[in-house]
Structure formats: C-alpha cells, structure tokens
Amino acid sequence: MFKAFSRGTHHRLFLFNFAPQRPSASMSTAAGVKRVGTHNGSFHCDEALGCFIIRLTKKFSDAQILRTRDPQVLETLDAVLDVGGVYDPSTDRYDHHQNGFEEVLGHGFNTKLSSAGLVYKHFGKEIIAKELHVDEDHPDVHLLFLGVYKSFMEAIDAIDNGINQYETDQPPRYVNNTHLSSRVGKLNLDWIDPDQSSENENAAFERAMALAGSEFLDIVRSHVRSWLPGRSIVMECLEARLDVDPSGEIMVLTRSCPISILRSHLKMDTFIFWKLHLFELEEEMKINPPIKYVLYQDDRSKSWRVQAVKIGADRFESRKALPSEWRGLSNDELSSESGIRGCIFVHMSGFIGGNQTYEGALAMAKAALITIGEREPV
User: With contact defined as beta carbons under 8 Å apart, do 34 and 78 qualify?
Assistant: First the structure.
C-alpha cells in the first residue's frame, strides 16, 4: 500500500494519496498535484484531522500526503502540518510546537491552536460555505465557523496542547478514553503488534484521518442541518417572550426542529436544541432578566412541558426550579396542590413539569415565578 524511502535513522518519507472519505494509496505524482507533509512516527488527532481538512479545500483537494521529518523534503512541499517549526499561512506552514507560538482562533476563543486548529482557522469558512452552498462572506458562514469550533475543534486544540478542561489541580474522578483524540491515539501501532513496518504505520494513519475526518464532517453537516435552524427558532422565541408574559422570563417554543429525530436515540426532549443556543443568545441580545422557564409541546403525547433553565450550559442547577411543594407529585394531587387544572407531573428535582394544555403549562410557569424557592440542588 505504501512505499518507504530511507533517509537516515529519523528521516523517512512516506507518500500516499487518498480521497477524503474513502482512502486508497497511490505512488503516482501527476503534474500539478499538491503535496502536503506531516511527520512520520506516532500520530495524534490534530495532524490527522488537519490533513483531512486541508484536502477538503479547493487548493489542496487532490493533494498527496507525505509523512517525514526530513527538513530538506519538507521545504519542497506545498503545505506542512505539525512539523517543521514554522507557522506561516502565506506559505501554508502550520506547525504549533515552536517557541513563542501563541496563535488562537480569536472571536472570544483563547485556546492555543494545534495544527488542526490552524488549518481550520484559515480554511474552515471555505469548507462551511461549500456545505451551505453560499459565498464565504455570508453571515451564516461565520456563525457556523464559530459554532463548529466551539463544539468540536476547540477540544482537539486543547487536548493536543495539554490544556485542562477545568481550572483545577485536582485529579479527575474518572478516566475518559472515549473522546476523539483518545480514539485516534489508539489507532497507533501497539508495541506488541508483530508488524511494525512503515507501511502498517501509514495504514494506521489513513484510518486516523478517516475517523477524525468523518466526525468533523458529521459535526459540520449537523450544524448546517439543525444547529443553524435551531438558533433562528430560539432567537424568534426570545424576541416574542414579552408577548408570553410581561416578566420576560418565560419563553415558548412554538416551532419544531429537525433535531427532534434524535429523541428516540438520545432519550432527550424534543426541544433539546434550545439549550445549545439560549445562553449565547441571551448574552448576544442582552436579555435581562434571563429566561427562567421554557415551554414546549411534547411531540408524542401532545401535552405541554415547562422546563426550568439551567444556570449554565454545563451545569445541572436550575436558575429557578419549580416549587418544592410540587416536586414528586402528579395528576390530581399536583393539580390540587398547585391550584392549576390539568397538571401531569413535576420531577423530584423540580427541573421539569407537565400539563395537558398550553394554558396549564403557562399557569405553572407563572405561579413558579412568584414563589420564593431555592435553586435546584446540584
């Protein structure tokens, strides 16, 4: 599948060519075909993903991938990722290991970039525009560019640069070896593998590119398909909040969203998508006071839900849980306690409740607003 050219103990050149989604090796070098280099040896998620992403661009769509640390070879290549000690987009050099490197995406993101992040910074909008079938200067392209970075790319950068997810010196309570960077790392040859050849190593790198690349494309396309429409829906509902209640603290989701098809698989409520956008849009739109409750119709039972908004996207505590007197009650008992007809349930933690009608769910939210209650326990 691959051919290795010996260049000393540490400098070996591996050349291969494959389509982004279905790899296949080739040694042919057609006139005008771009060549993209990265290092040989053990690989990480960032260069595997970076090589995949750069081949999605018009400039490097037919590029061959060369794996080597030979500086003389690297100098001859059209682009170099994760090796060479140079970051210079004008010459398509995208390394991040050199002293003094502090490049970040910007736009509020401060995580130091890996080689994948560097490629995404300079080519991400082109790829997203292609998926949207619009020009790069379309406003939706910038929204998705930032959204994909936040939900996917930033973690790749942080992990490769050894940046902890939480600002603490405490050891983690459990080991997580299921994230993409870990799964890509596991594709490296095991020390007990009987075939330690360079051909086998490069076959593993191909698999790493395919794995990282497929997840990248899944994220981009899910953002195009559901994230962007969901954001528009949440924005419309936020703008209409004062029509629901003068307090401005109750939002009603009146439109469905394609992400509801995930419900049966993820066991989440139909309108889970609103959580992806509410906190950002509240800040962007300067919503004050913040939303306390979100109402939406259950797509199966057609009854209505009233859900307390969390204090943060990655927190479990609610801004204002439903009244403690209601928690754990259901049906007639709950209706009697609350004085509201049609009640179905309130969760033991107070983060969600249900009513047979929209009017009943709205009455529950309004009543909950005026109660003096503690936040939902963490």
Answer: yes
Q: Where are the beta strands (DSSP E) in the chain?
A: 3-6, 12-16, 35-38, 64-67, 79-81, 87-88, 93-94, 104-106, 109-112, 250-252, 293-297, 304-308, 343-346, 352-355
Q: Is 237 helix (H, G, I), strand (E, B) or coil?
A: helix
What tens digit of pLDDT does each residue of 31-63 get?
689 999 999 999 999 999 999 999 999 999 989
Tokens representing residue 174 in the block: 């459990």
Cβ neighbors of 301 (< 8 A, separation 6 or more) are none
Phi-psi group of 250: left, alpha or beta (phi > 0 → left; psi -120 to 50 → alpha; rest → beta):
beta
DSSP per residue, 310-347: BSSTT---BSSPPPTTTTT-BHHHHHHHHT-TTEEEE-
| Type of residue at 301 | S
Q: How far apart, in whole angstroms, are the C-alpha atoms of residue 368 and residue 359?
A: 14
> What is the value of pTM for the model shown?
0.79
